[in-house]
Specification:
The complex is a heterotrimer. By secondary structure, chain A is mostly helical. Chain A is built from 13 helices and no strands. The N and C termini of chain A lie close together (9 Å). Classes of the chains: A mainly alpha, B alpha+beta, C mainly alpha.
Chain lengths: 334, 549, 297
């Protein structure tokens, strides 16, 4: 197992190096005036753009810029934004917690509702209950995230005033940003502010969790049905074990395998899905940051961010694979 | 199943808990005003920014010698000066008298030395990060250091400041109303090493600590990038009658217009700097007040380039330009895409700009347009044209570039053109291609930096660059260029305005571009907000605002 | 994807595989939800083909002065912000949206199949290199990849199809390679190899046909996602360049400001997207079950 982990980690190095080269070339060769244009706004005359590109070093040969970037990266310097001059790591530490909270919220929603729903449907395959679950999960996949988000905000915030629709915390409460994890900050601030933080998480989590919810529901349903038809389950039933015991001991234990895989894959997808959800709910996270940075040609930010994304993605998948082996001792990694 | 039930129970608990918390009235007197800003601030040192969001926040905190009367775009009033300056006959010396008893937010005194310190500081900005970001100083005074038109700033006594220029500068006073020329505390600037480069190590500019130490009715409190910036009431404001009424303002950057509208409706924010014109009807019907920004300070136009890549285009033909100007139904666009919040331009300037002269602009007339096009005698192939519009951008003069371009295309088709619609990302080539002269027909516009004719006609469009006509239009008119240079150096504003009037006559006679709209971008606020005064240049002051329950 | 379909085909022989398809078709025809899905897709395809006949107006005929009118007898789905008839545009939109969805997936399928077949067929160093590249693509969230591609190639329908297709191709490549690897050790491939068939022949004649079924299922499901992803790109301002082209995603994202004052502009194109996506999903599920008898309920 340890050897497997080490090999996977070593294998990640060429992936990341390749990614850095591709990203670098890709970004530098993008059409447009570069970050100088974003700094200048409507004052971006060709002369001023050229002047700023020169002082900021964008007109150096590409390989010089690349080795400069990689050299700093190896020293742990992820560089800084050309637009607001802020270091990528500082901004990341401010924004990433928001995305983590949103991702966890979405996963809790998707797993918490998806697995019970899937089991429910699997227990009575082809019943009207099963049909309803199928329709719900299909809608979850088929509705564009922003339509779902706006509609929920309209119903639950504008009309019913049940839940907030903007950001992570109510600005009127003046909760100091210590960790930038809104829930943690709210707990630190005391006074039951944590309720405010949690209530802000509800709608965005549901919006972001809708697709994974649908996928997890369907996979759970399919794998529970699959496992239920296995001989050992039939044997267990024939032995006269209670339904509950068969379910927990035999069915779910095995049905967890594909479900875990899907949860892992979906976690990677959530980072991408967060781009839309964060926009709709004015959520301060990395999703919206990466989009504006691409639009502003803020090279260093995009390069470093996507590398960080890639590391997270690879790590999550490694954890999932290890977890998979843990759940299923029959799998051996060579 | 049981688990599902417990999850639902928790969800219900959370929902009920926050219903009760949101109905609790805000107990603090004064209260917190939450303002939805179009985007995040860039730097917390106003001298280093040129974007509207930073300036919007800075306007609450920092004050200059002169400012604009709230709600107007070109009525100059003294702020930290007691009066408008006395100007020498040659137009090279401006003398300001300063207010006494004004203190910066850090407790230090505002005086002539502080003014001199600030102007000297900007002039001495070093090449690189500082000069690259301090666009306005360089643009207004023609450069930094010895390039600057400022010869000296003298402080003969604590309440007198004397500016001496190398050549007369008719736009000096109106340009100084910009927030970037706001006076900050020299004590704070020095203590916090506000000139540190690179800017990532500059805590003052990053707003991570003491920042924006000015004299305004609000004081900078904190800024979490992309999340919010907060200013609090200045309890010792020098002008007690106009002191802030709310305790705190939180500015929240919100890029998405639908999210902004819904946040207003749900009460998550109290005021939105702008809302999409498409949302105005909904906002009105849900008892939100629309911000009236009376005087427009921008102009959206259809750019026509007479020479692309050295080859003359069909737009070099004046009849073609005229035909297009007659073919576009400007009022129709304003009704459909600007929620009626705009006017058909009467010249190449918004009407309230200093130097504006009303011209007889071509009216929407399909018959005349067809006639002009017939006169132009274009071949069938020449009638096939490309119309460019930008993606991924919303500008005050162009709230929906895609829709505007679609409608223009259909109007041009109606008079005989065949239009091919094309788009590029605003920063991904559009601005570059437009300004370097690669786009034959394109949507563009200008938001005023200050409401002077020079800012539109000379800086933005028709001033020669490096002795050559602006590549955006390829419109060469030496007479207009000479007139503009003359106007800039007139000793008095009146003399300059006469020159600008002549420039506009030349433009009207030749139609180099087709002005489409002077818009007044709508914003909105909830019924809790009282006393807000909107302004066409989107610099607005919150000291008059109160919050009711 | 679960690994089960692979296990089934691993035991199949070439002759039996024809039977597999026949069986699959019969199973599909007996699967109610799948037939519903097929029916929905047929319905939208007919809308696309018959649009010029059914639609009361052209996709771009109208007058700006009629903008944002509510549903009425003359405009049963109202008019949009340009004053165009929404019903006609939804009908014409079927042409573009279905094409974009299907072609995007085809792009992804072609790219994925080539890469996956080479990797899975060749093995060794080439396999490692190709799979590392695939990892790189997988590591970048799909929507970011698409943003980058549109930024590079400019706005337009082809670019969008390419962008979505490329972001799907690593998934197809992995799927195919996985199936091929499993098949390599199967009895009939070993048999073919021992009879002296060339590696290329084994790959093309024996392995690929059997490894394609999970791809087909995945592609049907991806067609649903593709239509939604195109809408998502439009939301980020990366839609097709010419807004006069009626495309559901573009119509939907263009109208997102009208959720409250002209909800019909969200509802109808949104409904078209959701229902067609459900159609592809039901069909995809049906295919999966039909091609994998073990899943039969």
């Amino acid at each position: 197992m340890l050897r497997f982990i080490v090999r996977r980690l070593l294998g990640a190095i060429p992936v990341l190096l390749g990614l850095s080269v591709i990203l670098f070339l890709f970004l530098r060769l993008l059409p447009g005036g570069g970050p100088a244009e974003a700094i200048l706004g409507q004052h971006a005359t060709p002369e001023l753009v050229a002047q700023i590109s020169h002082t900021q070093g964008f007109d150096q040969p590409l390989y010089v810029q690349y080795f400069d970037y990689i050299g700093r990266l190896l020293q742990g310097d992820f560089g800084s934004s050309f637009i607001d001059g802020r270091s990528v790591v500082d901004s990341f530490l401010v924004r990433f917690p928001g995305t983590v909270e949103l991702t966890i919220g979405a996963l809790i929603f998707a797993v918490g509702i998806g697995i019970p729903l899937g089991r429910l449907a699997a227990r009575h395959p082809n019943s009207w209950l099963d049909g309803i679950v199928t329709v719900i999960s299909l809608f979850g996949i088929s509705i564009p995230v922003f339509v779902l988000g706006y509609t929920m905000a309209f119903v639950f915030s504008v009309q019913l005033h049940w839940l907030p629709d903007v950001g992570q915390l109510d600005p009127r409460l003046d909760i100091p940003a210590v960790t930038h994890f809104s829930v943690v900050d709210a707990i630190l601030a005391g006074d039951w502010h944590v309720v405010d933080a949690l209530s802000h998480l509800v709608l965005p989590s549901i919006a972001l969790g809708s697709i994974p919810l649908a996928v997890i529901t369907r996979i759970t349903r399919a794998s529970v049905i699959d496992v239920s038809n296995e001989d050992y389950v039939r044997t267990a039933r024939a032995k006269g074990l209670t339904d509950r015991r068969v379910n927990s001991r035999h069915i779910m234990r095995n049905a967890w395998l594909p479900v875990t895989t899907v949860i892992g894959l979906q976690t990677g997808q959530l980072l991408a899905g967060a781009v839309l959800t964060e926009t709709v709910f004015t959520w301060n996270g990395v999703g919206s940051w990466v989009v504006t940075s691409i639009q502003n040609h803020d090279y260093v930010v995009v390069q470093s961010l996507i590398l960080i994304f890639a590391v997270i993605f690879l790590t999550v998948n490694l954890i999932v694979d290890v977890g998979y082996a843990f759940l299923n001792p029959r799998i051996r990694y060579s | 199943m049981k688990r599902l039930a417990s999850i639902l129970a928790i969800a219900a608990l959370v929902a009920s808990a926050c219903t009760s918390s949101s109905t609790t009235p805000a107990p603090v007197s004064g209260g917190t005003l939450v303002v939805g800003l179009d985007g995040d601030m860039v730097f917390a040192d106003p001298s280093l920014v040129s974007d509207g969001n930073s300036l919007y926040v800075a306007a609450q905190v920092i004050q200059g010698l002169v400012g604009l009367k709230p709600g107007t775009i070109s009525e100059i009033i003294p702020v930290l000066a007691t009066d408008l300056p006395t100007v020498s006959a040659d137009g090279k010396t401006y003398t300001f008298k300063l207010r006494t008893g004004v203190k910066f937010h850090d407790g230090s005194d505002f005086n002539a030395a502080a003014v001199k310190f600030n102007y000297d500081r900007w002039q001495a900005y070093t090449k690189g990060d500082l000069q690259d970001n301090a666009y306005y100083y360089g643009a207004v005074f023609g450069g930094f250091g010895t390039d600057s038109n400022v010869a000296t700033v003298a402080a003969p006594d604590p309440t007198t400041v004397v500016f001496t220029f190398k050549t007369p500068q008719s736009n000096f006073l109106i340009s100084q109303t910009l927030q970037v020329f706001g006076i900050q505390s020299p004590t704070a600037l020095q203590k916090d090493k506000a000139d540190t480069t690179p800017l990532k190590d500059n805590k003052y500019a990053q707003g991570q600590g003491e920042s924006m130490v000015g004299t305004g009715p609000f004081m900078f409190k904190d800024w979490t990038p992309a999340d919010h910036a907060t200013v609090v009431k200045n309890p010792n404001y020098w002008d007690a009658a106009n002191a802030a009424k709310v305790d705190q303002i939180t500015f929240k950057p919100m890029g998405d217009s639908t999210a902004k509208l819904q946040a207003l409706q749900s009460g998550s924010i109290d005021l939105a700097q702008t809302i999409s014109p498409a949302d105005v009807a909904t906002a009105k019907s849900s008892s939100l007040s629309i911000i009236d920004r009376g005087q427009s300070c921008n102009l959206g136009y259809l750019g026509l380039n007479q020479s692309v890549g050295g080859t003359p285009t069909i737009y070099a033909n004046k009849d073609v330009r005229l035909a297009i100007a007659q073919a576009v139904n400007k009022q129709g666009y304003i009704d459909a895409f600007y929620a009626g919040q705009g006017k058909v331009p009467q010249s190449w300037l918004p009407a309230a700009t200093t130097g504006f002269k009303a011209e007889a602009m071509p009216a929407y007339d399909v018959t005349k347009a067809k006639a002009s096009l017939t006169t132009a005698a274009l071949t069938a192939d020449q009638l096939k044209v490309d119309l460019y519009y930008p993606s991924n951008v919303v500008r005050p003069y162009m709230p929906d570039p895609k829709a505007l371009a679609t409608a223009i295309a259909s109007d041009l088709q109606a008079v005989g053109f065949t239009v091919n619609l094309k788009t590029e990302d605003w920063h991904g080539g559009y601005v570059k291609d437009a300004t370097t002269g690669n786009l034959p027909m394109f949507l563009f516009g200008w938001t005023c930096d200050w409401a002077g004719a020079d800012n539109f006609l000379y800086t933005a469009w028709f001033g020669y660059q490096g002795g050559k006509p602006n590549a955006q239009f390829g419109w060469s008119n030496d007479q207009a260029n000479a007139l503009m240079l003359k106007a800039l150096q007139e000793p008095t504003v009146d003399a300059a305005n006469a020159d600008w009037g002549q420039v506009q006559d030349l433009l009207a006679a030749d139609m180099p571009t087709v002005p489409i709209v002077n818009s007044t971008p709508p914003g909105a606020f909830t019924s809790k907000v009282k006393g807000f005064v909107g302004s066409g240049n989107a610099i607005e002051y919150f000291n008059t605002v109160t919050l009711t329950k | 994807m679960t690994a089960s379909p692979v296990a089934v085909q691993a035991g199949a022989t070439e002759r039996a595989s024809r039977g597999l398809w026949g069986d699959a078709f019969r199973r599909l025809m007996r699967n109610g939800p799948a037939l519903v899905g097929l029916g929905l897709i047929v319905f939208f395809v007919s809308c696309a083909i018959l649009a010029p006949v059914i639609a009361p107006y052209g996709p771009n005929t109208g007058s700006l002065s009629n903008f944002l009118q509510g549903p009425s007898p003359s405009h049963i789905m109202g008019t949009d912000k340009q004053g165009l008839d929404e019903f006609s545009r939804v009908l014409y939109g079927a042409q573009i949206s279905l094409t974009v969805g299907v072609v995007a997936v085809l792009f992804g399928l072609i790219g994925g199949t080539i890469v996956g077949a080479i990797a899975g067929g060749a093995g060794g160093l080439l396999d490692s290199v190709l799979m590392r590249i695939t990892d790189v693509l997988l590591a970048v969230p799909g929507i970011l990849l698409a943003i980058g591609i549109v930024a590079w190639l400019g706005h337009g329908e082809i670019q969008i199809m390419l962008a979505v297709g490329i972001s799907y191709s690593p998934i197809f490549a992995r799927l195919l390679r996985g199936s091929l690897l499993a098949l390599r050790e199967s009895d009939y491939v070993i048999a073919a190899r021992s009879m002296g068939a060339s590696p290329r022949r084994i790959l093309i004649r024996h392995m690929l046909p059997n490894a394609l079924t999970p791809l087909i299922v995945q592609a049907t499901l991806a067609a649903a996602t593709a239509i939604i992803d195109v809408a998502g790109l439009g939301f980020l301002g990366l839609g097709p360049g010419d807004p006069r082209v009626a495309e559901w995603g573009e119509m939907l994202t263009d109208s997102r400001g009208f959720l409250q004052n002209a909800p019909w502009l969200i509802f109808f194109p949104g409904l078209a997207i959701v229902v067609s996506a459900i159609g592809f999903n039901l069909l995809g599920d049906g295919l999966r079950e039909a091609l994998d008898p073990r899943l039969k309920r």
